[in-house]
Write a structure and sequence with these properties.
Length: 308
């Protein structure tokens, strides 16, 4: 195989209580990438569509992730990368993670899959570091593994796949403003009170249990963030109204998607998820805020090859 075309999915990181450790994979939104094996060694980015991003491989998350992989294996050929962005950078649904995972997944496939999924996440983390100044994997893991994932530990990297309840759907609303992850991380407090930590790890345990038990009521009770959301929500216009409306219209819970500005809600059933998305859209129409909405099932497959 000399050439591969990829669908690299958008993801929702944190899922309220799981800052930097929990994530889920979306189904309907994602970038397209094409990776080509070429005789010249090294990595080149030959096409970028849909966003203004650097072609310099050392300044592009896909390039940096690809170089991290190629440091770990000797090849006497190289790769060209084409990136067709559908996920807006700074939208909060894992735009940089999609670029980084697309690069490492594509190259790994063209090399005959020498690396495991976890190793691909490790390489892609170099791209996330370039994008946000931090090596988190909560968008990368669900993009590569699909479904819900838990990063149980970072040193060494330990990724756990979590069960996806069959009737769970995600609504996402994206106000068309950009929030840089690095800036959304800079406003966070570096210490947490024991009282808040106890609430948070109770909710993380509850959410994971709820997902495995397919207990929607337990999932609902656990979708709270005591630590990050109170600080970041001020960056998102109408956040409290969006969350309140989502829950009034039947969502199990709602919160900030990754570092924002997108807001996500989880619902039981597609019909409810659509109603929730429409209700959040009305909030933004009333506030005259340009936005996009998505309703998606959880993508349990993750990143994948598409027809060439
Ligand atoms: N866990 C990360 C954050 C996700 O919230 O900063 C965004 O990349």
């Amino acid at each position: 195989m000399e050439y591969i075309q990829i669908f690299s999915p958008a993801t929702v990181a944190n899922i309220s209580c799981g800052f930097d450790i929990l994530g889920l994979c979306l189904d309907t939104v994602g970038d397209k990438m094409i990776i080509r094996k070429v005789p010249e060694k090294g990595v080149r980015i030959t096409r970028i569509e849909g966003a203004s991003l650097p072609f310099d491989v050392h300044k592009n998350v896909a390039g940096v992730a690809a170089l991290a992989l190629l440091k770990a294996i000797e090849t006497d050929f190289g790769f060209e990368i084409e990136i067709i962005k559908k996920i807006k950078p700074g939208s909060g649904v894992g735009s940089s993670a999609a670029s980084a995972t697309g690069a490492v997944y594509g190259i790994n496939e063209l090399l005959g899959k020498p690396f495991s999924k976890s190793e691909l996440v490790q390489f892609a983390m170099e791209g996330e570091k370039l994008a946000s100044g931090s090596m988190h994997a909560d968008n990368l893991a669900p993009a590569i593994f699909g479904g819900f994932t838990l990063v149980r530990g970072y040193d060494p990297l330990d990724i756990i796949s979590i069960n996806t309840p069959k009737e769970l759907f995600v609504s996402v609303i994206h106000p068309e403003i950009e929030i840089k992850t690095e800036e959304a991380r800079a406003i966070l407090k570096k210490t947490v009170s024991l009282k808040k930590a106890i609430l948070q790890w109770g909710n993380v345990g509850g959410l994971i249990s709820g997902l495995f038990l397919e207990d929607y009521e337990l999932i609902s009770r656990s979708l709270h963030d005591e630590i990050v959301e109170p600080h970041r929500s001020i960056l998102i216009p109408g956040f409290n109204d969006l969350k309140e409306t989502a829950i009034q219209n039947g969502a199990l819970g709602a919160g900030i998607s990754g570092s924002g500005p997108s807001v996500f809600a989880l619902s039981k059933g597609e019909k409810t998820a659509q109603k929730v998305a429409d209700s959040m859209s009305i909030v933004y129409k009333e506030l005259d805020i340009a936005h996009k909405i998505y309703v998606s099932k959880i993508n349990t497959e993750g990143i994948k090859k598409i027809n060439q």
